[in-house]
Amino acid sequence: MGTFAQQLINGISLGSVYALIAVGYSLVYSILLFSNFAHGGFIVIGGYTCYYALRSMGNNIWVGGFLALLATGIAAALTERIAYRPIRERTDIKLYLLIASLGMSIVIENLFVVTIGGRFRALPPVIPTNPVRLFGITTTSAFDLLSMVVAVIFLTGLQLFIKKSKWGLAIRAAACDLRTAGLMGVNVNMLISIVFFVAGVLAAVGGIFLSVRYTLYPQLGAITIKAFVAAVVGGLGSLPGAVVGSLILGLAEMLTAGFISSQLRDLVVFSLLVITLLVKPTGLFGKEPLEKV
Amino acid sequence: MGYFGGIIILLCINSIAAMGVSLLTGFTGIFTLGHAAYMALGAYTTAILTVQYGVHWFLAILAGGVISMTIAYLIGIPTLKLMGDYYAIASIGLVESIRLILENWQSLTKGARGYPGIEGFTTLPVALIFLVVMTIGMINLINSRYGRAFKACRDDYLAASLLGYNTAFYRILSLAISGFYCGIAGALMAGFMTFIQPVMFDMMKSTELTSVVVFGGLGSLSGTLLASTVITLVVELFRPISQYRMLIYGGILVAIMVLRPEGIMGSWEVWDLSKGLSFVRTKSKRGGNDGLS
Amino acid sequence: MAFLELLNVDKSFGGVKAVHNFTLTVQEGELVGLIGPNGAGKTTVFNLITGLYPVDNGQIFFQGEDLSPLKPYEIIPRGIARTFQNLRLFARVSALENVITAYRKCQYSFLEALFHAGRWKLSEAEARKRALELLDFMGLADKALQAAGTLPYGHQRRVEIARALALEPKLLLLDEPAAGMNPEEIEDLNMLIKRICTNLGITIIVIEHHMELVMEICDCVACMNFGAKIAEGTPDEIQSHPEVLAAYLGEEA
Question: Running DSSP on this structure, what letter comes out for residue C169?
Fold first, then answer.
């Protein structure tokens, strides 16, 4: 019972970190309808910015975290500006955007390899990881609880931004039909920059938690494949879907690792993807895409 | 067989694999990040059949191609029926899963440390004959009703389906054929190296295949062959600075998409140039391979 | 038995009734105009006939066969072809290849394709010849090898019609073929549509936004507004039909 509850909390905690990443990815997908493979790069940028900010400006997580979020948001918006906007403005062939995003993901990853090396780094111990006894039933770590709380805070913030703000309304309109939103007077380029900034900020939060969990290295971004799968399970382009999919994935992964074999956890992720596509290809919350002729 | 002969063999193998990806990405417009997985399947199938079961190497190579083709077909059914990035995401999952299976199915694959003692059947003539036959097959295929169907799916899948094409069928067929090509390439790789390891067929190899196709020009087979040759030579000649190689790849991928998505060749083929002056006179800015050469 | 029959067809998108209780009968060899203000549901009717969207209610019969459960790739080979309101040519390949792509009589096998053997040579030559004839029929013989995307707009529209004809359809659906053309080109186009109908014996439904254009060539005109058919008759009857006038005036007011 204790172990099961422990794995459960562990799974939800991991799932909530995935959710931060998947929501950002899904947000971009809902507007531009392509998979931004550079999203993993944003995680790495977030992780390293936080690492160096902590090292150089005293171990203050508030300063380090803020700088990481800001820097990653800007890097994400810049990525869009440099690599995607010129393509977007000339053609609507999604394949070109996919290839450009692959290029950006390689560039970001290898910039870190070339400049600071591929060594694994541990974040200074600014996030508590001590064990916590929960309701007398089970033991978990403060880190797991913290990642859940932080994820809830940021996802609620995103929800408020999308539901209440003027730009949030524009984002919802653009998710229905980007071109029409543009015709209605929405500044599409500004909107897309904001979307990438938001996605970058969320990825940075995810990146900081992942670098505490797995240490920090340039290929850490590869883990976003799990967030992508989570987004498909929940329904590509659906934000609630991305959250639910992430939780399912986190749980499936941790329960497999805990009760079957930790080597098989990644295989479970892929199986979930295939099962989803076979049973309900549009995912849990996805809508059938409607073609306009 | 000297160093030079070895490079030629490697060149043949890489070109066969790149042609497979070229068909899928360049001619059918489907993005992949996992074609090394099909190479791995081909390589291990051939290795196991020849070493463990004493099957003749030629039959084993064909079996490698067929196994890869079958797996590609099975992956294609759930992922390519719907438009969207499902296959792109699944391909990353596939390459990871295949690696995990190869590493953990010790009794069959001998695990992560690799599979030794494969007969060195990939001699220079064998590699050349495979390359020539498979190149002719690919050119013929592209210049047939199948090639037109693939290109129609790439350029406008809706128009294609309203010309009576079952687009899902052709997309899955394209993937199956490209899986076959990569499977054969992997099988030849096994006979060339005589020792194979799961890490030889990782994400990096997959990325390289996709990059080669983009460098050569999406929708140009001769461009793919040219780019594959250049990249193979570059990789061999500049081994010492390999950490910068990926950085440069990524940068070029983005640059090509931003500046000239059609790549070096556009959709032009080398053999178009020989069609005589009348064709050159009517040539348009963006190229006009009439597909009947 | 009617050639094409739509019976009480309904289609809605998220609560909006795009097509509502729509009934239309077309006889073989007719040239039918489908008119109506923007957003009346005309293109949706084409999308339903070609199976791009499944119908919510009602049935569509083509030569006595119910099309509603079929997919586009099953419907098209039964003899229906269409063009698109916003051109959907394969921009990167030549005009000729666009037309050949639609030519479905290339019935050689995969192996014959792989080795360029057997029926391949004859089939391809036949396809090419037929496609060139069609481009010639459309007055585009000299543009055959140009990439379709680089042709002027009016030519692209005609390539699209040639492509639709390459399917050798019995029923041709033209979606605003005159959009973006100047009056002179429209005049040519009208002649062409008439010729396709009478010379090639193909039944045609043509969507037009402007009433005047269809009035000249159509045998029969149906007018839609808000997803429903509001009038049907000869061009003369339609022109003086009070509801049609109201629909158009209402739009302009």
Answer: -
Under 8 Å between Cβ of C34 and C175: no
Confidence of residue B46 (pLDDT cuts 50, 70, 90): very high
> Which residues of B sit within 8 Å Cβ distance of C?
137, 140-141, 143-146, 148-149, 151-152, 155-156, 158-167, 219, 267, 279, 282-292
B contacts of A82 (beta carbons < 8 Å) = 254, 258
Please determine, looking at this structure, whether the domain spanning A2-124+137-279 carries the CATH number 1.10.357: no
What distance in Å separates the CA atoms of residue A30 and residue A177, rounded to the nearest whole number? 10
- pLDDT band of residue B225 (cuts 50, 70, 90) is very high
Partners of chain A (3+ Cβ pairs below 8 A): B, C
Q: Could you give the ipTM of this predicted complex? A: 0.89
Query: What CATH number does the domain located at B2-292 have?
Result: 1.10.3470
Please state the domain extents for chain B: 2-292
Say whether A263 and B104 touch across the interface (CB within 8 A). Answer: yes
Q: What is the pLDDT of residues A211-258, one digit of tens each?
A: 988 889 999 998 999 999 999 999 888 899 999 999 999 999 999 988
Q: Which residues of A touch B94 (CB under 8 A)?
A: 270
